[in-house]
Structures are given as C-alpha cells and as structure tokens.
Design goal:
CATH architecture: Orthogonal Bundle
Number of helices: 16
CATH topology: Cytochrome p450
Protein name: Cytochrome P450
Largest sheet: 5 strands, mixed
Number of domains: 1
Helix content: 40-55%
Organism: Candidatus Paraluminiphilus aquimaris
Strand content: 5-15%
Distance between the termini: 74 Å
Cofactor: heme
Family: Belongs to the cytochrome P450 family.
Keywords: Heme, Iron, Metal-binding, Monooxygenase, Oxidoreductase
Strand order of the largest sheet: 1-2-10-7-3
Number of strands: 12
Structural class: alpha+beta
CATH class: Mainly Alpha
Order of helices and strands: HEEHEHHHEHHHHHHEEHHHEEEEHHEE
Shape: globular
C-alpha cells in the first residue's frame, strides 16, 4: 500500500497498515446497547459542536459501545469513561497506533490523493514502541522548555500585532479568522523555519486539507457546494508535496537551526526516512500544533462569555490564567478523538474486543466524566485536579507540543484580557463537519462587550 520504496530508506508504516474490511458487526457479543440519537461516524453530525448529552448517556449506559461503519469502512468501539480512555492510552502494546493508524477509517489506495494518505499514515503519531520513541527523541529539542522560552518574544509580538489589527477592524470581528487561525500557524512556521514568502501557501494548503475529509466522505455534496474544489485540491496537493520535497532536499544539503532540518535528517535504525515519512512529519507538526491551539483559543472566548464570574476571577488575579487555560482545554476538548487498534483479543469494562478491531477514545466524553470532574459541565478553574484533563492525550502519545500550545494560550489570554477585558462572543459561530477536531472556523465577538461600541478616545490636555 505504498509508493515505490527505496530499500535504503526505513520501511513505511503504510506497507503493513490494517485496511478496513467493511465489517458491520463485532466479533464478540456486545454487552452494552447501541445508543441512538447521534451518528458518531457522520461528519455532518458534528457541525453543532460536541454531543455532551450523548456522551453522558454513553458513559452511563454504554461505556464501550459498538458503532457499525458505513461501507466500505468498518465499525468501531467507542470508549467514553475517563479511566477507560487512560487504560487504552497506557497500554500501547495492546492498543496500537501503528496497526491501523489514528484515523477512524483506512481505505485501500484508490488513485485519489494516495500520496496524502501515505503522508497521513507515515508520521510520528502513528508509530509504536521503539520507533515512536526514537523519532520523538530526535524532534524533542524543539519542544523542551529551553526552546519554548526562545519563542516567547516573537509570539508576544505576533499576539500584539493581531490584537492591533482586530482593534482597527472592531468593534465586531471574527476572532477565529483574525486571531485563532493566525497565531498557531505563525508559531509553527517559526519553529519549522518556513521562509516568510512561503507562509501564505502553508495557510492555504491547511485550509484545503481540512476540507479533504468532507470531499472523501461526501464528494457529491462537496462538488455542489464548490464545483472547482477537486481541481483546486489536486493542484494544491501537487504544489504542497513539491514544496516539501524541495525544502527537505535543501535542509539536507544546507542545514539550518530549525525543525525542518531535524525532520529532513532524521533516521530510524540508521536509515534515512522515505519521502512518505518526510511528507508526514512536517505536515503533522502543522496539523497537530495548529488544531489544539486554534480551537482552544476560540473555545475559551465562548466559555468566558458563558461564565462571567470566572472571567472576573482571572481579571482580578492574572496568576489564574494557567489554571483557566487547563480548564478551558478540558471543557473544549479541541481534539475530539483518537483511534487505537487491538493487537490481540482483550477486554475493556467487561466488553470483549477482538484482535484488529478499532477502539475510538472520545476525549470530550472523558473530560466531562463526573467520576473525575464533579459538575463537569461547569467551567471552574478552581478545581483541585484542573490539570488532569486528557485534551493532550495521555501516556507515550501525549502531545509532544503541549508546552508550545500552553505557552501560546497563556500569553494570548493574558494580553487579550488586558486589552479587551469585556470581549464577548455574539453567539454566531461556524463549526466545520470534521470528526477529528472541534473545528471552529468562525467565531464572531464584540471586543468591548455585548452590543458595545468602540470607546471614544479623549485627548488629554498637556
């Protein structure tokens, strides 16, 4: 299942990846009922946000629930309780990231965007055991506190620039488009070492890649909404992969002090990485680093509007910002799920699971488990266990960039509340039909408060 391989390169994960069989039912008898009321496998079901009421039913009635797939995809088990999610995360030998990838479905090559599929499968997030650890260690220098400190001045300047631009456009602006999308992309480009002139292309490519799942699952609907999408998408893929090849080749010949250089020169078992791995590695950094930060930023502004007393607490005591950030990550759960694949027959909460069956961990459900977080639907930064959320995952696959994300979030909240302490979500938002991440593509806010106008600047006599 791969491009032509160079035997001198490390073997691609996608050579042996488990492809969906189209299985509708599980191998073993289900001991929990299949709940109705929400279609976990449908992209369009997610445009109203996460189904927290449905998650509650899952935790209480069907903590390990089977959902049949739609041909040609296979069905999957859903895990919704906090302790069960941690059990899956902490047992990577039984619940593999590599066997079937972290994607909900893996289909055979079809000629449509195959190279994108290979890139998605051959990356750090889809590796197990020693090769996951080795590749993670090679990249880790750019995620340690020492390096994070070197980014702070540049990130702070970018935050101020974005806030200045919003103020010029205000009082009502689209916070998701003008701030949440821009900040993490800037930070990631700084880390990777993407040249300034190439950054607009990176932003454009990420937009098209986010739309890709919609096209693959509902091509006719996508065609009706945007008739030129397929042509533009294919051209985008060609341009993006040409860029990746060119940059990787350049970093091998002309290394710099950046993350692209580390990726280009990485090895596994002493062998250089294939182009599949190189494609997957730099794209993963942008995707993984962008989604958590971007959607948490927008989600937090919603929460501050809904829970005014919590906002006032932070305004009165800025030392609470880090706690607020963690609680907002718990409440928002920007990455909604991850998949693992059973490497052997096993059991979760009494439910038998067969080898090669999919297990989906729903982080939004785990993060609102009342057994761990009392009154889970209440935004409360004073919780004693405020940092125990699984928004960054858990165990060996805990998000490598969590420190980068936390740094951006904390700095952003501090400066936003300093400049716009009354920032108010108007209630208008757009959530994209994506199952993997809570993708808030539009969030309208008034910078100065509900229905407020721009404050009048009064000249002070000298």
């Amino acid at each position: 299942m791969n491009q032509r391989q160079n035997p001198e390169h490390y073997q691609s994960v996608s050579d042996d990846i488990l492809v969906d069989t189209g299985a509708i039912n599980p191998m073993h008898r289900e001991i929990y009922q299949r709940l109705k009321g929400f279609d976990l496998g449908s992209t369009n079901a997610w445009t109203r946000g996460q189904p927290f009421d449905y998650y509650k039913r899952m935790r209480e009635e069907s903590p390990v629930m089977w959902t049949p797939g739609r041909k040609p995809t296979s069905g999957f088990w859903s895990v919704s309780r906090y302790d069960d999610v941690k059990h899956v995360e902490l047992n990577p030998d039984i619940f593999s990231s590599q066997r079937g990838s972290m994607h909900m479905a893996v289909l055979p090559p079809s000629g449509k965007a195959d190279r994108l599929m290979y890139a998605a499968h051959n990356s750090l997030i889809n590796l197990d055991a020693d090769i996951h650890r080795d590749l993670r260690i090679q990249q880790s220098e750019f995620f340690f506190p020492k390096y994070v400190e070197t980014l702070k001045a540049r990130v702070g300047a970018k935050i101020d620039e974005l806030l200045d631009n919003m103020e010029r456009q205000g009082p009502e602006v689209d916070f998701a488009k003008m701030f949440s999308t821009e900040l993490p992309m800037y930070t990631l480009c700084e880390m990777l070492g993407v040249d300034e002139e190439d950054r607009p292309n990176i932003i454009k490519w990420m937009h098209y890649l986010e739309l890709a799942p919609q096209f693959l699952t509902h091509p006719f609907r996508m065609f009706m909404a945007e008739p030129m999408f397929l042509f533009r998408f294919n051209q985008m893929l060609e341009d993006m992969f040409d860029y990746g090849e060119r940059v990787m080749a350049d970093r091998i010949k002309n290394p710099r002090e950046d993350l692209l250089t580390v990726i280009a020169n990485a090895t596994l078992d002493g062998k250089p990485l294939s182009q599949n791995y190189l494609d997957g590695s730099w794209l993963l950094i942008i995707f993984a680093g962008n989604d958590t930060t971007r959607n948490s930023l927008s989600g937090t502004i919603r929460l501050l509007t809904e829970f005014q007393e919590q906002r006032q607490m932070v305004i009165n005591d800025r030392s609470l910002i880090e706690r607020m950030s963690h609680e907002a990550l718990r409440m928002t759960s920007p990455v909604m799920h991850m998949r693992r694949t059973a490497t052997q027959d096993t059991e979760i909460a009494g439910q038998k699971i067969a080898e090669d069956e999919k297990v989906i961990m729903w982080y939004g459900a785990a993060n609102r488990d009342p057994a761990v977080f009392p009154n889970p639907d209440v935004f409360d930064m004073t919780r004693k266990n405020v940092e125990k959320h699984v928004a960054f995952g858990h165990g060996v696959h805990r998000c490598l960039g969590n420190r980068i994300a936390q740094m951006q979030l904390n700095m952003a909240y501090e400066r936003i509340l300093e400049r716009f302490p009354n920032i108010h979500w108007t209630g208008k938002q757009k959530i994209e039909p994506i199952i993997l991440v809570h993708a808030i593509s539009s969030l309208k806010v008034n910078l100065y408060g509900k229905g407020a106008k721009r404050p009048t600047q009064v000249a002070v006599p000298r």
